[in-house]
Amino acid sequence: MKSMFALIGAAAILAAGAAHAADKVTAQMKWVVQAQFAGYYVAKDKGFYKDEGLDVTIKPGGPDTSQAQALAGGGADVVVDWMPEALAAREKGVPMVNIAQPFKRSGLELTCRADSGIKTPADLKGRTLGVWFSGNEYPFLNWMNKLGLKTDGSQGGVKVLKQGYNVDPLIQKQADCISTMTYNEYWQVIDAGYKPEQLVVFKYEDQGVSMLEDGLYVMEGKLKDPAFVDKMARFVKASMKGWEYARAHPDEAVKIVLDNDTTGAQTEHHQTQMLGEITKLTEGSDGRLDKADYERTVKTLLTGGSDPVISKAPTGAYTTAVTDKALGK
Amino acid sequence: MTDRRLANLLPPLAFGLAVLMIWELGVRLFSVPAIILPPPSAIIARFATSIPTLAADFRQTIKGVLMGYAIGCASGVAIAILVDRSGFLKRGLLPLGNLVSALPIVGVAPIMVMWFGFDWQSKAAVVVVMTFFPMLVNTVAGLSSAGAMERDLMKTYAADYWQTLMALRLPSALPFLFNALKINTTLAMIGAIVAEFFGTPIVGMGFRISTEVGRLGIDMVWATILVAAVTGSLFYAMVAGVERRVTFWHASYRAEEAS
User: Fold this and answer.
1) Domain-located, residue B19
2) Domain A108-207's class?
3) How far, in Å, CA of B208 to CA of B56, rounded?
4) What is the rounded distance in angstroms from the CA atom of residue B52 to the CA atom of residue B202?
């Protein structure tokens, strides 16, 4: 009996001790370690998360990770994802909710070889285009619908290739155009020897079909817990501080990203270019989701025509509760 | 169907049905989210409504499977005969064949896509790489399986190399060849589907699996898996059926008949 009490007493003390330890957060990134997520790595290495009493584990993503599955399976508390994917996941039964939007602008673009003769989007008819799938095809499908170009291979449409996460189809001339991000694959094409004059680029922002990209998402059920909302608010506050720091100190931020890259695959040259372009996308956002941007993304997705990404306007897909707490109303 | 064949079929059927029922009940009881594991009823429903898509995917993938299988097996046999003729080639080519077969598909597939383009040709190329070595090794083993007495008999008939090959050594190698042909049916399916993860026009079983995973359409993934499993089993059964007819004389069949 005495030993029982001693055991319970010891357990209670341990539990009390644990309550004072930092709150654990697991954040799943959308891709491998790179400057696209500089804000989070900076916040971790500069101690911003620690200052907020958070013990954050940043998990890198990759070609085979699914953000919605990471949330649904419990592998992460918060994920970085693009809005089209998150809204589609919501319809499929995974209630993802946007809690913050660090990226104000979209970096998605279609890069074509100038020698293919394409000058305007109308010239895309009958061409072979490389498109990323695994959830990244929604902005493209939407744009093609807007242009009235069928993607199923029928006459008068476009031929679509499932592009891997590289720029080979353009370089090997297997496709006339490929999907690239302003901050990543475009520079891979340049590094492969192409000059900017040899390329024709269509930015989704300029075509009026851009959608919100990197945002922070959590499971709806968890937001009912005020302790979780508080934890997320602290996470968002520290992350936005990390983004500010990355914008102000790009060289140091690049170093931090490279230090976190255990694969050694990233180079300083490429990451510096990437951070420069990413800064163009994050500038102007304090983390709050702009309602107008959200409405525009939803509208673009709903007018998908024959193959809409989502079938009806989503409700409860975002919350301001976290950013209100983090940044003050 | 004989009584004994029916009796052999019942246990696996019953077991399979039991597994399906446990799956269905378990998923419903524990409220497992559909994107982690959908119930069999949802999979069958999705299968039924997606037959045109699945048929188009099947037609695309099977092109790579069959062409790769044919080229891989044929070249395996051809090189094996060459190796058999020359001891020097045997010592040189067999270890090289071993190396080629050990190349991981996920490394070979993107390279093949770069060389042969996005369509079924690159998938066939990956299948050739995968099926070549098993065929080579089995044929080489089979060619040396003819008995010494039978080979001496051919010598007494003054049969030259090619006559001995066609009349004695290849027929006696057939069980080994069919062994490899059966292994290669599975490898061909795997190779073609996995190769499609790395670049395809937007049709094909591998394409469907990888994109539906990204779209959280896991019931479609399972429907495609179902098609792949049935195709693979039928392919294997066809080759096994041909084997039964052609190598009826082999000891393994005689034992079956006797029991």
Assistant:
1) no
2) alpha beta
3) 11
4) 14
CATH number at residue B229: 1.10.3720.10
CB nearest to B114's CB, from A73, A135, A168: A168
Closest Cβ opposite residue A72 in set B35, B118, B198: B35
**Most distant CA pair in chain A: distance in Å?**
87
Is the dihedral angle over the CA atoms B180, B183, B188, B191 positive or is it negative?
Answer: negative
Which residues lie closer than 8 Å to A108 by C-beta, 6 or more apart?
A: A139, A179, A181, A182, A203, A204, A210, A213
Per-residue confidence of chain A (329 residues) as pLDDT tens digits?
666 766 665 665 555 544 457 899 999 999 999 999 999 999 999 999 999 999 999 999 987 778 888 998 889 999 999 998 899 889 888 899 999 999 999 999 999 999 999 999 989 999 999 998 877 788 888 888 888 888 887 888 899 998 888 898 899 888 999 999 999 999 999 999 999 999 999 999 898 888 899 999 999 999 999 999 999 999 999 999 999 999 999 999 999 999 999 888 899 999 999 999 999 999 888 899 999 999 988 888 887 655 667 788 899 999 999 999 988 76
B contact test, residue of A133, A137, A301 with most B CBs within 10 A: A133
Q: pTM score, two decimals?
A: 0.79
From A310, which residue of chain B is nearest by alpha-carbon distance? B215
Contact indicator for A176, A116 with CB cutoff of 8 Å: yes
CB neighbours of residue A228 within 10 Å: 19
> Where do the domains of chain A lie?
22-104+212-327, 108-207
Strand order in the sheet with A199-203: A199-203, A108-113, A177-181, A128-131, A159-162, B200-201
Per DSSP, what are the bridge partners of residue A199? A113
Q: For B188-216, what is the mean pLDDT?
A: 88
Residue among A89, A163, A172 whose CB faces B216 most closely: A89
- Does B214 contact chain A (CB < 8 Å)? yes
Instruction: Report the top-level CATH class of A22-104+212-327.
Output: alpha beta
Q: Where on the phi/psi map is residue A200: left (φ > 0), alpha (ψ -120 to 50), or beta?
A: beta
Q: Is the dihedral of CA A70, A72, A78, A81 positive or negative?
A: positive
Q: B139 forms bridges with which residues in the sheet?
A: none
Domain count, chain B: 1
Q: Can you give the residue range of the structural domain that contains B51?
A: 38-258
pLDDT band for position B80 (cuts 50, 70, 90)? very high
Asked, for residue B63, whether it belongs to a domain, the answer is yes
Residues from chain A that touch B216, judged by Cβ atoms under 8 A, are: 66, 68-69, 88-89, 92, 94
The ipTM value here is 0.71
Q: CA–CA distance from A262 to each of A48, A82, A158, A250, A266 (Å)?
A: 22, 25, 40, 20, 9
